[in-house]
Amino acid sequence: MKLIQILVGTLVVIATVAALLIAGLGEPVRMAETERAQQARSIQTGASVYETYCTGCHGLKGEGIPTVAPALNSPQFFTQRLKEIGYTGSLRSFIESTVAAGRPSNTQYSAKMPTWSQQFGGPLRPDQVRDVTSFILNWEKTAGTQPLPTPGPTATPLPSTASPEEQGKAVFLADKTACKACHTIDTEPSAKGLVGPNLTHIGTEAGTLVAGQSAGDYIRASIVNPNAFIAPKCPTGPCTANVMPPTFGQQLSQQELDNLVAYLLSLK
To answer: Which end of the chain is more exposed for a tag (fewer CB within 10 A), N or C?
Structure first.
């Protein structure tokens, strides 16, 4: 009887060891499949984050906007960007750190990239920063192989009889100012920015924001000295300082500035 019990116990041990060996051999495959599934979920979530926060400056398909923000869905971004700036880390760490901490405006791109991570006062959690990075990196496989949206036709010059409001609207929508990349105006399809305050009714609201300051004076001061008063509400939460470039007073002529103020005052 003891011999039978020993034999049965031995067979059980052998079967258990064999099962563990088989499971162990299949573990790398299971882990790889789990990693692929997690990566797919990260890319899917990142696509939603990108659509909400990034399309205003970088384009719906990562094509970028000339003078506003660079293209992300391009071979150059994946093969040359790190060399251009002398970054020695990985592309993932570069994207994550840039999304998190932002990027100042420069001579090539007028729009300043805000700080998006909650760590720096932005709206995105760490996992959302990682997810949007995964989504951008996913473009590497197809960058340059699929057609991207092309820039629209050059705007027709306004007639000399155009009103100040019409001329100011042209200034607002021009690539050189990039106003439309950061601000939303509900009646302007191309002005759907998610960085700065919604300006749909700024002509009415501007006169109520700073005591003793007229709507026109407030709008003008906000353009040439944007940190003088920080608007209380932006699409992603409270507005923050040092996001809007403080150089429009030098970039725009006096006439362009007057016309831009006139246009914004007309938005009731």
So the answer is: N
Q: How does pLDDT run across 30-73, given as a tens digit for each residue?
A: 566 766 777 788 889 998 888 878 877 788 888 887 767 888 99
pTM, full prediction: 0.59
pLDDT one-digit tens code per residue, 173-224: 887 777 887 889 999 887 877 778 999 999 999 999 999 999 999 999 999 9
Question: Do 258 and 171 share a structural domain?
Answer: yes
Check which CATH number belongs to the domain holding 61 and give it. 1.10.760.10
Count up the domains in the chain and report the number. Answer: 2
Q: Provide the 8-state DSSP code for 69.
A: B
CA dihedral (94, 98, 103, 106) positive or negative: positive
Confidence class of residue 154 from pLDDT cuts 50, 70 and 90? Answer: low
- CB 119, CB 126: distance < 8 Å: yes
Q: Which of 68, 81, 72 is nearest to 47 (CA)?
A: 72
Distances (CA, A) of 94 to 25, 45, 100: 36, 20, 10
Residue 242 exposed, middle or buried by CB count within 10 Å (0-12, 13-18, 19+):
middle
Q: Tell me the residue range of the domain where 231 lies.
A: 164-265
The verdict on 169 and 78 lying in the same domain is no
**Do 118 and 202 reside in the same domain of the chain?**
no
- 178, 254: one domain: yes
